[in-house]
């Protein structure tokens, strides 16, 4: 798959016009680039060929390649490898690049060269496609090599040049192990840049950053903090340990965490306090507002100087749609308040602890919504005095296990009375049943189970055996 980008800026946050050209058959690097010929037919300008698995090539390196194009028709990016291994070699004479030799096709003398080919190329777009049309596949792999473009350009009397970069910029990724190594390099670079800019990282090796993370100076980041994509932190912010932030904006003076999660769409104003085990999503939080512990606030707007009590939840999803909660300035939301959206709480309004708020609360009012409390005198002592022995040691349980109910024989019904009715012959055995019940506390029987047993009629009658059940529901 080849991705092409027109008029690409040096800031990769805005890639401009892009497109993809699939390479159905993998016939070599030149064949891959040639798939973009149709898409770039009317493009007039320089083309830079990059690899998708080399993420560390810097904008400065690319700018140097473009600058070198003023003096050369084709520019190749090279690097000095500590271990050249199987890289292609750049053969340079008198400052001009003569050719590129793939390792498998190189002589022993050429393999001794340490200047290696990164694969990146800068060239006029039309010239590049004209040269690619002349490339053949007469090589050990039977592929169309983009590197052959240098020999073809030299044969036309065109000049080719090399721009060198550090080997670390050309690091390729072809496995999960190499991806992990590349990520470690990236994290190390970003952490060093933050430290040099005046950000305090208490345990740098435990802080993980995204490519677009922006953190202002004099900010303190405690251990084990993860920044996902799209996070901006102003100056003087304190991010406490084990917090996770993504797609959010945190203004100066704010304190977040520990164990806090800021999800996409969250905006914290100055001097806000987001405490432990708080999750905020798609919410604007006003200046000096506190959400200090154990709360979920999603799809909401909170005014300035408001206090959100512990355990508060904005119930924003009804199973179909998301709804917003609006909370005014200087409001007080009591602990364990459920705000069932869509709902609003006015300025300087209050909700009592444990309330479920389903209707709007006007400014300056107090909303209470909870079940009436009942008090049972003496019930606590009674419950506390109950046996606390393990189940197997409780005497009444042992009695049940040692003395199961005897089998009871009942004659089958021959008169056709309704099963379960008062005239059922089994009713005649009630005294005997009650006597057996005395050996089993809270013993009962279910009519449904008796009906199931009646389906198993036989000439000699029906046998019912006492079988202890959970919560002492038994049949016999």
Structural features, described:
This protein has ten helices and 34 strands. The protein is of the alpha/beta class and 476 residues long. The longest helix has 22 residues, at 176-197. It is elongated. The two termini are 74 Å apart. The model is unreliable at 8-14, 405-424, 440-447 and 457-476 (pLDDT under 50).
Throw out a few tags for this protein.
about 475 residues, alpha/beta, Spore Coat Polysaccharide Biosynthesis Protein SpsA, Chain A, UDP N-Acetylglucosamine Acyltransferase, domain 1, 13-stranded parallel β-sheet
Which SSEs are present, and which pair or pack?
Blueprint: E1 2-6, E2 17-21, H1 29-34, E3 46-49, H2 59-68, E4 74-80, E5 89-93, E6 96-101, H3 108-111, E7 115-124, H4 125-133, H5 148-155, E8 160-164, H6 176-197, E9 200-201, E10 214-215, E11 220-221, E12 226-227, E13 232-233, E14 238-239, E15 244-245, E16 248-250, E17 255-256, E18 261-262, E19 266-268, E20 273-281, E21 284-285, E22 290-298, E23 300-302, E24 307-308, E25 313-315, E26 325-327, E27 332-333, E28 338-340, E29 343-345, E30 350-351, E31 356-357, E32 366-367, H7 379-384, H8 395-402, E33 408-410, H9 430-437, H10 447-454, E34 462-464
Parallel strand pairs: 4-8, 9-11, 10-13, 11-14, 12-15, 13-16, 14-17, 15-18, 16-19, 17-20, 18-20, 19-21, 20-22, 21-23, 22-24, 23-26, 24-27, 25-28, 26-29, 27-30, 28-31, 30-32
Antiparallel strand pairs: 1-2, 3-7, 4-7, 5-6, 33-34
What structural class do you assign from the helix and strand content? alpha/beta
CATH topology of the largest domain: UDP N-Acetylglucosamine Acyltransferase, domain 1
CATH class of the largest domain: Mainly Beta
CATH superfamily of the largest domain: Hexapeptide repeat proteins
Q: Please, how many domains?
A: 3
Query: What is the radius of gyration?
Result: 39 Å
Largest sheet: 13 strands, parallel
The helix fraction, in percent, is 10-25%
**Mean pLDDT value:** 84
Tell me the CATH architecture of the largest domain.
Answer: 3 Solenoid
């Amino acid at each position: 798959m080849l991705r092409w980008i027109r008029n690409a800026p040096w800031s990769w946050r805005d890639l401009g016009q892009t497109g993809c050209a699939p390479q159905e058959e993998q016939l070599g690097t030149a064949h891959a680039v040639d798939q973009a010929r149709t898409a770039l037919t009317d493009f007039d300008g320089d083309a830079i060929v990059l690899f998708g698995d080399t993420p560390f090539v810097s904008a400065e390196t690319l700018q140097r390649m473009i600058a070198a194009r003023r003096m050369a028709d084709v520019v190749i990016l090279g690097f000095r490898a500590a271990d050249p291994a199987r890289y292609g070699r750049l053969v340079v004479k008198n400052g001009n690049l003569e050719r590129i030799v793939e390792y498998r096709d190189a002589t022993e003398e050429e393999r001794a060269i340490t200047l290696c080919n990164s694969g990146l190329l800068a060239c006029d777009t039309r010239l590049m496609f004209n040269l690619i049309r002349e490339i053949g596949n007469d090589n050990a792999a039977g592929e169309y090599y983009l590197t052959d473009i240098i020999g073809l350009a030299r044969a036309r009397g065109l000049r080719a040049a090399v721009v060198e970069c550090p080997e670390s910029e050309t690091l390729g990724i072809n496995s999960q192990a190499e991806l992990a190594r590349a990520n470690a390099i990236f994290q190390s670079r970003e952490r060093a840049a933050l430290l040099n800019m005046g950000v305090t990282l208490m345990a740098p090796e435990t802080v993980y950053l995204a490519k677009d993370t922006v953190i202002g100076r004099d900010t303190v980041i405690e251990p084990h903090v993860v920044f996902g994509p799209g996070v901006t932190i102003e100056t003087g912010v304190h991010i406490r340990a084990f917090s996770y932030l993504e797609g959010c904006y945190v203004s100066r003076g704010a304190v977040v965490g520990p164990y806090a999660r800021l999800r996409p769409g969250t905006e914290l104003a100055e001097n806000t306090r987001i405490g432990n085990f708080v999750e905020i999503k798609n919410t604007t939080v006003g200046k000096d507002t506190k959400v200090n512990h154990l709360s979920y606030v999603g799809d909401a707007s909170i005014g300035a100087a408001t206090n959100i009590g512990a355990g508060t939840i904005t119930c924003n999803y009804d199973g179909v749609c998301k709804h917003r909660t609006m909370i005014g300035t200087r409001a007080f939301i009591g602990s364990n308040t459920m705000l069932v959206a869509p709902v609003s709480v006015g300025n300087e309004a209050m909700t009592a602890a444990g309330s479920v708020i389903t209707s709007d609360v006007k400014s300056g009012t107090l909303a209470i919504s909870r079940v009436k409390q009942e008090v049972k005198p003496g019930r606590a002592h009674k419950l506390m005095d109950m046996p606390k022995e393990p189940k197997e040691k409780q005497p009444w349980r042992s009695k049940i296990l040692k003395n199961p109910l005897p089998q009871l024989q009942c004659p089958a019904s021959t008169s056709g009375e309704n099963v379960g009715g008062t005239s059922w012959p089994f009713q005649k055995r009630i005294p005997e049943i009650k006597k057996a019940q005395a050996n089993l506390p809270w013993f009962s029987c279910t009519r449904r189970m008796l009906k199931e047993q009646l389906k198993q009629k036989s000439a000699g009658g029906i046998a019912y055996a006492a079988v202890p059940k959970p919560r002492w529901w038994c049949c016999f």
